[in-house]
């Protein structure tokens, strides 16, 4: 009885391909001949070394063979130490139920072969999981079949039925095939029955779940009906509440609308009142005088170029003699689009504010858009920093005092009532010096009286065309057009750094910050001002950097944070030498050399009250006290920690200094300075 082709394998069948191509092809061909149209062949190949790339081409040829025979197939390659152990492991973990593999140890096939001869095949036959049917093939012939329940069909005598006794030439294949077909049918029947049983159990479970779900739905439906019934009682109340809510929201909306209109009206009224105040004729009456154009021409010799002391985009400044007083007359450029507004702005502000460190407006000439100020003979701070006309450099004591005076003027402007004033263009060129080097802030042409901003809730002025000097202009004002008192704080910070270093403003912030980071501030200080006290210089540098922060929220408050540091600093600083003394001392220094140990290591001036500190060095008493009070606990010379803050008067050195000054006839000047 011949086995019917393509009926043995109907589902997945795993084929273990040996390494020898001749054996592999015979095994694969046998499986293809006995596979049905629905079967799928899984070609597995086990290698014992990781370099199995060379086997891929051969495996691909096996897939091509299956494709030609119209049989579905795929390949899988596994790496194991031993082939038999790999097959046994794969059968177990993948639940393989159909496996076909080679039976012979070499290519010699013997007709009397009754069982697999290779050790690999024998190990698989004996140790593979019992759920797997295994066919052993050699040269396209079925040699042995291990049934899943271990009932083995072999060619041995014990496996043959009794009717085969006495017929030794009985064809082995004709005996095995019918039994094999019967076993296969039985196996397929059991498998089908098992699948049917599982399907019936699953269907029964689904029916139970469906019935349970129906009960849950019914219960929920009853609860929903109950809630609907009781909710109807509250429907009218809820509807009425919603109506009341909408009515209340409408009233709130109307209230907010009226409030906004009222706020806008108040703001508009304040603006109109301020505009009226700024442009009112009585503004000129607040000044001492109103001058005619003829008076100005007579005072300046018809605006002679010899009396011109300044020129810029705003116009020209002339020195004049008006009504028995030396004055400065600023003629605004009438061709400028902003000339008239600058004139009115400066008159409106300076006619209302008075401060020792603000330039005094004496009068105005509306006819010529001219402003008359007090005359300040020492020019601008910018001129003095550049030593214009070979003037002597400002001492560090004078510079600290100027910082204090400008800070005082800004605090006064920013706290002015009823409305604050922001300068808008603070810089050394707009800080003038009188005969005693007293500083006064000038040029209020682009200044503004501030109103409270509805956007920020603070005093501010908004403009679409920010004006000012770029190097001193607040970056946030330049970017947003919002001018606030903090805008002046930024300009003040840059001005402090200029007084410390004497350098141009461009990239000055970065230079000073780098020097502080490197603990080398001394290298960027302006030494033409004398030897700066390092403690005070560092404090001023940090204040300047804080004031010139990019973000205005990080800038300090001038009154609360800056004034409380600068004011004591000026009061405690030694009085600067007079200009005459400095001149005489510099002339005599060619012949007289002051011993270095007479100079305080901190202030670099001749000591009046020398005191020995814990580090063994002698300092001026006031300079050492300022150093310690500023937070330092280290020696100004050695930079090492001081063991204590006690000092001992150095009477011997004090006597030597006084004798030196007496011999060089400098004692009286020193006492005066």
TrEMBL record:
Pfam families: Pkinase, U-box. Residues 593-667 form the U-box domain. It catalyses: S-ubiquitinyl-[E2 ubiquitin-conjugating enzyme]-L-cysteine + [acceptor protein]-L-lysine = [E2 ubiquitin-conjugating enzyme]-L-cysteine + N(6)-ubiquitinyl-[acceptor protein]-L-lysine. Keywords: ATP-binding, Coiled coil, Kinase, Nucleotide-binding, Transferase, Ubl conjugation pathway. Residues 303-570 form the Protein kinase domain. GO terms for molecular function: ATP binding; protein kinase activity; ubiquitin protein ligase activity. GO terms for biological process: protein ubiquitination. ATP binds at residue 330. Pathway: Protein modification; protein ubiquitination. Its EC number is 2.3.2.27. InterPro entries: Kinase-like_dom_sf (IPR011009), Prot_kinase_dom (IPR000719), Protein_kinase_ATP_BS (IPR017441), Ser/Thr_kinase_AS (IPR008271), U-box_ubiquitin_ligases (IPR051348), Ubox_domain (IPR003613), Znf_RING/FYVE/PHD (IPR013083). It comes from the Eukaryota. This is RING-type E3 ubiquitin transferase. It comes from Panicum virgatum.
